[in-house]
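Students often ask why we bother encoding 3D structure as a string. The short answer is that it lets us treat folding as translation between two languages. Here is a chain of 213 residues written in the first language.
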Amino acid sequence: MKHGVGIIIIALALISTFVGTVGCSKSVAHAVYMDYEGVNAAVSKSTHGLSLTLALNAKAYQPGSEISIIVDEQNTLSTENRVRISYDWRLNGLVTSTFCNTNNYPFGVAVYSGDYPADKLAKLKPLYISDPRIMYHCIAGPTNYFTYIFKPLSDIIWLRADGAELSPMKDEIKIHGYWTQSCEFGNFEPGVYTVAAGDEWGTLAVVHFTVTE
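And here it is in the second language, the structure alphabet:
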């Protein structure tokens, strides 16, 4: 095992322990990236030569089933793409998928109870898919970058000008349900739900899933 992989696994374990200690009894889980495009996915292009992909691992689930959400920001240009940071978030309450303590992704996700189009979501309140006691750590906002330097036709950005460090603008979270404001956790009830991914340049991607009886 490479040292970097081992460090990531240890960090995940520590973060999961921390969340379970100071917040509610369950936490949002993070996992190795999977490819669910074509299963239940939507892709939206922005004016900056980027595309935002949102994908779920299924269209229908039973109560308590694991729901995997992937968000991927990619450069659609065949050349290096330098994109300045922005604060043009179209939705409030988008949750970052960066362990809820480091906001290094330019996107966030939200889940809503009901079947809604993208243009109706701004007035709605999303469900708490993260522990409400640590929610303030998870809201999408300013990142550590002033400019995202994307590799050609890729979701990889340079973290340093010499290209010595790379990072994918892609993440996966796994959820089973949501919390109430009083910190009670429960499975998704039968019905239709809307999942939205939004980036800081105002791009939205929306998919829906159903929880069956």
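Translate back mentally: The radius of gyration is 17 Å. Keep this in mind for the problem set.
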